[in-house]
Amino acid sequence: MSAVFISHAVADEALATLFTDFLKEAIGVPSDAIFCSSVPGHGIPLTVDFNAYMKDRIQNPKLVILLMTPSYLESPFCMMELGAAWAKSHRTLPIVVPPVAFSTVTKTLGLVQAWDITNHAGLVEFRAAVRDTGINLENRTEQDWDRKRTEWRQRSKKTIDKLKGVTSVSMSEHEVVLAELDQVKADARDLESQLDTASETIEKLKNAKDAVEVKAIMRETSGDNGLEDTFNQLLAEVKASFPKDTSNAVRRHIVMDHYGKAAKIDWNNSDFQDALERNLFALDDGAVVWSGQKLSRLGKALSAIDKFLDSSDGAEFVGMQEDDVPFEADDRDFWKHHLNL
Prior knowledge:
Blueprint: E1 4-7, H1 13-27, E2 34-35, H2 50-57, E3 63-68, H3 70-73, H4 76-87, E4 92-96, H5 103-109, E5 115-116, H6 123-131, H7 142-161, H8 171-206, H9 211-222, H10 226-241, H11 248-258, H12 270-277, H13 293-310, H14 312-319, H15 332-339
Parallel strand pairs: 1-2, 1-3, 3-4, 4-5
Helix pairs in contact: 1-7, 8-9, 8-10, 8-13, 9-10, 10-13, 13-14
Keywords: Coiled coil
Pfam family, one: TIR_2
Protein name: TIR domain-containing protein
């Protein structure tokens, strides 16, 4: 009868093999004292009935080791082995393999002390736990122990990183994800609606002939939402108009160029090199290419902000705000405050 029963998932054969070798070579557990069904020499002999042999081996081991990986928790057969160990009150050592949480042990075995396999300091306590079982261990020197423990640290991480991940989730987790997805879709629809409204407003402002017409457009757009909603819609359009995958530094430079206040470009900054390669800046002098397709929408959005702030409605809106909030669009602090540029 094997003294150590290693319960593991078939998908975790590599980890089970590494662990079996560590028991033998580092701690001195005799080879014939270990049962691990996936490891040659420690598993089930040919011609033997699998189920009967497994039942026999789980009867009276001195220690049951559970390699609790994602694959282990999804295996019905592993759950039967865990249940057998619990029902027979065997001395059981759960070894938690991330991303499995310690709370899983409490849910399955109660308040049993477990070991996180990535906590290498726990190897000392693990060796002590094996010794306490009374297994007749083969002699291993401290030099053997230190060498094998160092080897374990190196090899175990690589092995764990290659383990199969979770392939299913619980119904409750599934329902939470679906609810979150529905909320994301609703938020996206709302944002699309706001951007559509902002785009329509920008087009109207672009074609406005004078301040009176601008004011009328603002009144029409505001409706029951007020001037603040109009301002926020215009800001949202500016944010949506920036070319994708550009950094804040590049966006800030482009905006300040719109107001004739752009600083000298630091071409050692890879973000500006990337923007140059994407035709946002001219190759000869580094000027912002406002006439290009990628910045046309942004130019219109910035002009719409300017028209709003220059209108009587804009002045009324600014007058209702706190004194320390910047509302001069040609001031860098304005864009830092409102769009975190």
